């Protein structure tokens, strides 16, 4: 008997190894090929860092965008593990997991689509940027399936307009507006600022809906291409494994035929081959069952995504109808706003006219108040002048009485002096008669008269001259007193005229005050009337006193 070669050939060693070992070996070769340095224009050293920095900046901009709009941001993006951890331990069981990941991602997108349609204020960043590991696994699928064209490759990134819109910080600042308000049909006052903010929110919601629709279309295309790629890939892998198994079995049969084995060794080899065949069949059945289960789950997920898509479209229609209703309401509010603005302009013009009239009335009122104050000051001044004039008139009346008394005394003295002069003149005439008689009796005797005889004649003349001087003085004093009385009468007449003019001015001022102001209360009117009556009585009393003094 020829014993088998103790050194196993490479083909026999590969044929004898298990399926798990083959998968591990293939995974190691794939990882070694992946880790090779491949520096080209599209695979530069700092490209991954730049992409990571760009993603971080975009994530920060999105967070700032959501913070400015008071939206709730749910961070669902997680940092995935390296590529060695993403893939499974074997090729065939790992392929369905790669298919599960985009399907679960599509299911997550559909759930977020439902959340967005339910609450139009929440937008998640995972909708615009799928996980990087998913795109990497989707990029590996065309390399495994050779019958797919590069046009159907799902590694194509979504266009720029499908990503989340970013607004500048200047555009996010609120515009300064007046706090005007509009009134709805229910009587609720809504600020124009809130209406403008609501319109901006509606515009943003419509823009997000359009972006989400485009993303859903892209995701549907990606899902269909992914399903086709997965079907073709696992069918191709199954065919490849079947052909490789047939080829290996034929090689092993050829190898066994070329070698000379003993009957016991042949039986042992055949038993081992049957055992391996049974184990291979069992593993193939298990893998097929797993693939079928994964296919069923993928179909279920596809149905769920279709249902969520239908719900999202229904919600979109509802939102569109609500948007149309809100647009119509906004038009009505705009017309009402324009009408209210026109009414507001009319009211503002009326208010400006009323303000101008109010200013004119205030100015007129200030002028009247100033005139009233001036008139009050004039009244007080006139009252002071009247008091002074009354005191002056009283003083003049006293002086007039004194002057009249002095006049009477002077008249009495003048009469006395005149009587004395008459008496003296009579005495002188008698003395002259006596002297003439004496001269006639003693014509020849002319001695000088004695001092005693001449003295009476001289004393009589001196007395006469003294009386005449006194009479002239008294007459001059009497004329001065009469002149003073005439001046006092003139001053009294002037004062009475001034007093009457002051009374007329006072009455005119009171009439102007009564015309300028509203009628005062009855108490105030009675007080003014009583004061007026008192002043008229005083004026009449002063006038009568002056008249009596003038008559005297």
TrEMBL record:
GO terms for biological process: cytoplasmic pattern recognition receptor signaling pathway; positive regulation of type I interferon production. Residues 75-89, 450-463 have a biased composition (Basic and acidic residues). It comes from the Eukaryota. GO terms for molecular function: protein-macromolecule adaptor activity. Keywords: Coiled coil, Membrane, Transmembrane, Transmembrane helix. Residues 109-131 have a biased composition (Polar residues). GO terms for cellular component: mitochondrial outer membrane. Residues 75-180, 442-463 are annotated as: Disordered. The keyword Ligase does not apply. Signal peptide: none annotated. The chain crosses the membrane at residues 528-546. Residues 266-434, 471-498 form a coiled coil. PANTHER family: CENTROSOMAL PROTEIN OF 170 KDA, TRAF3-INTERACTING JNK-ACTIVATING MODULATOR. This is TRAF3 interacting protein 3. The gene is TRAF3IP3.
